[in-house]
């Protein structure tokens, strides 16, 4: 799978599908994983009753995180399970992705260690040893826009990519744009 791709998954190819961002496995094989968070009935059922087989339906699609490859230095801002799409960029090795940008990362999540496990946190710190991981259960989210702008200026980033829910994405992207920062986030039009 290429950086920034997502796939549609289902337990029955004739029923509903759900889109998930992919990220490479570190097993040296051409395999991938997807981060599934408990966001509704379908994902709750998948988590509580893991299947022996999951079907991939249709062709992979490209997500907004892919735009980070246009820059040499980029700020990644994400919340919660938004880390999933970012992992395809964060975990990419320089050999697999020669144009991999320098990254600064801000990730806000409720209890990230218990929710996402040590391997995800280690991946974030491997990509950015000075990453800012905010445990919102402990501190709340705080002013994500101010934190993002400050880190953007301090890091010398060329652009910011925001992967979050619609409200936070719109607030941070528009706020950064008002400050003259090239900022990108997904369009929630479906």
Give a verbal description of the structure.
With 190 residues, the chain is α/β, with parallel strands linked by helices. The chain contains six helices and nine strands, in the order βββαββαβαβααβαβ. It has helices at 41-48, 83-90, 112-127, 136-139, 144-155, 166-178; strands at 5-10, 18-24, 32-34, 55-62, 73-79, 102-109, 132-135, 159-163, 183-184. The strands form two sheets. Strands 7-6-5-8-9 form a five-stranded parallel sheet, sandwiched between helices. It has a four-stranded antiparallel sheet with strand order 3-2-1-4, with helices on one face. Helix 5 (144-155) crosses helix 6 (166-178). The model has no long low-confidence stretch (mean pLDDT 88).
List the helices and strands and how they pair.
Elements: E1 5-10, E2 18-24, E3 32-34, H1 41-48, E4 55-62, E5 73-79, H2 83-90, E6 102-109, H3 112-127, E7 132-135, H4 136-139, H5 144-155, E8 159-163, H6 166-178, E9 183-184
Parallel strand pairs: 5-6, 5-8, 6-7, 8-9
Antiparallel strand pairs: 1-2, 1-4, 2-3
Rg estimate, integer Å: 16 Å
Distance between the termini: 24 Å
The low-pLDDT segments are: none
Number of helices: 6
Strand order of the largest sheet: 7-6-5-8-9
Structural class: alpha/beta
Helix content: 25-40%
What is the number of strand segments? 9
Properties at a glance:
single chain; 190 residues; alpha/beta; five-stranded parallel β-sheet; four-stranded antiparallel β-sheet; 9 strands; 26% strand; globular
